[in-house]
Design goal:
Strand content: 15-25%
CATH topology: Lambda Exonuclease, Chain A
Helix content: 40-55%
Shape: globular
Number of helices: 8
CATH class: Alpha Beta
Length: 265
Amino acid sequence: MTTIKQGSSDGDHYYTAQNEPAYGCGIRAAREEGLLPSPSTILGVMNKPGIAVWMQNVAAETALEMADEVKAKFTDRKDQVSAVVKAAREKSQGAMDLGTQIHSMAEDILAGKPAVDGNPFSVGISDYNTMNIVRTRWTERVVTHIGDKIAFGGRVDALVEHQACGLAVLDWKSSKVARSKTGKPQPKWYDPYIIQLSAYAYAIDGKPQPISVAIDTTPGERGGIFEKIWERMEIERGWRMFNLLYRLWCEEKKYSPHEWYASRR
């Protein structure tokens, strides 16, 4: 593994040109070593209303659930607010931890391991795999692209051969899926999903079809699977947006990875 001089991390994710993660590195190390920002890092310059709404909902739900308990335990309003904020953070962290667990389950299923009996997420992913995936090429692999106008790297969930689409790049998403008044599932497919997937598809040989797979974490509905096979116009739009965001990121960070590599050719 390439030795990278680590500095203060700013929470972003970077990779080397040799497809290795550069954990713990910040923008200073990236500038010095020519590290490649991940699509999620580049997307950091973009306002994400979906995430903001989710966080607001978590805070509101927590406040309603804990109202009586908090008022009985604390008399000072600041203490009440602090208790609710702490609980909301723990709830958010729990949701993120569950997402990590679901990703691990998906990786295991694609690797050929059997579903975990009684686990709705594992069983749901296994059923999806049986119905849609012909063969798994690989899972959890770092890919990079260094071009004349753009350079980035990132960890991809999976590259598979899909029953309907052929070669496809998968991105697992776990969240509560809203339902209509009649109970019909209404999964949301946000712009950042296809922006990130379009970048991965561009970096992988063979032009794989981008596919988002949503795993429902709604109590009582856990394990439901919803698939979004992105259309060509959506993919092209996602790639255009990614290029624009990359340029904005370069200006904001005062670092252009593609120029760093061009100057060393």
